[in-house]
Amino acid sequence: MNDIIINKITTIKRCIKRIQQVYGDGSKFKQDFTLQDSVILNLQRCCEASIDIANHINRQQQLGIPQSSRDSFTLLAQNNVITQPLADNLKKMVGLRNIAVHDYQELNLDIVVHVVHHHLEDFEQFIEVIKVDQRC
């Protein structure tokens, strides 16, 4: 595994840990804007690092040229690097990231809470699949 992937995996792990630390039991999340910003920023970083890994593997294995961030995960699934359900979940994360970054619409905090409770493991699963794919 090369340094790019190692560094991106380290970033994802660090961000997941940070989300879990600051979120805690979630009781203050909807009232604490600083807490919201911290969780959302770290989710964005997880998304960006995952996209970077996907793009790197697409380029490295010559799987195709993605036309969008979502396409990066589609190409990985089409080439059996990741499963289709994992690709679908990661593409939804890209949508969440787009809303947060570009402020297309107000970010629904209930969705963020759902992601924290049910989808951080998608990033962890992605990391594990990539480690196998990259033989490390």
Question: What does the model show?
Answer:
This protein has 136 residues and is an all-alpha fold. The chain has one domain: Four Helix Bundle (Hemerythrin (Met), subunit A), CATH 1.20.120. It is 75% helix and 0% strand. The protein is built from six helices and no strands. It has helices spanning 3-23, 33-60, 69-78, 84-102, 109-118, 120-133. Helix 2 (33-60) packs parallel to helix 6. It is globular and about 45 Å long. The termini are close together. The mean pLDDT is 94.
Number of strands: 0
Tally of separate helices: 6
Largest sheet: none
Mean pLDDT: 94
CATH architect. name: Up-down Bundle
In sequence order, what are the helices and strands, one letter per element?
HHHHHH
CATH class: Mainly Alpha
CATH topology: Four Helix Bundle (Hemerythrin (Met), subunit A)
Kindly name the structural category: mainly alpha
Number of domains: 1
Keywords:
mainly alpha, 6 helices, 136 residues, single chain, hydrolase activity, Four Helix Bundle (Hemerythrin (Met), subunit A)
Would you spell out the secondary-structure blueprint of this structure?
Layout: H1 3-23, H2 33-60, H3 69-78, H4 84-102, H5 109-118, H6 120-133
Helix pairs in contact: 1-2, 1-6, 2-3, 2-4, 2-6, 3-4
Q: Can you describe this structure in just a few lines?
A:
This is DUF86 domain-containing protein. With 136 residues, the chain is mostly helical.
